[in-house]
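User: I'm writing a tutorial on reading structure tokens. Could you give me a worked example: one chain, its sequence, then its tokens, then a sentence or two explaining what the tokens reveal?
Assistant: Sure. Here is the example chain.
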Amino acid sequence: MGAAEEDVKRGARGDIGQGGQETQGAQGEQGPQGADREFLSLERELSLLLRRARASSGEMARQVHPDLEPAAYGLLVCLDDSGPQRATDLAAYIGVGKATMSRQLRALEELGLVSREPDPADGRAWLIRLTPDGRTRFRTVRAARRASYVRRLASWERAEVAELARLLGRLNASADT
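And here are its predicted structure tokens:
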């Protein structure tokens, strides 16, 4: 195990402080600027997770298509999970403006990963859907990612994996409010 992995492991237990220094103390101990130790640990672990997620997202996007932007991978997730969507709904889901969404959708169309069709509920609007090729490419990459999770968490109990998913879902829901 490398030094970085050992730091991550110890950090997950909460015995690594800022700058990688080992710490001592009781639950609720105050750290720099009055922050509770638990929240400092949370910040550190989320920062690491997000850095790795950004790198992974870029890699997965390239596996779907070499010219796919990493930010567009999330659109494919949404379309595969929820089916055809309006561009405004996709923009809200991802948290970007109309112009950014239009640019990303145009790029996905040019790559042959999505198509537009009239919205039967509103003739003025369009629905975005995965093309058959886009769905196949995306699902192949997603299945490989899930297999990676299974390998990495093989030593975890199923209940622990479910609890992690539940807590992350709760965290994501709190970000929406």
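What the tokens reveal: The two ends are 39 Å apart (CA to CA). The mean pLDDT is 84.
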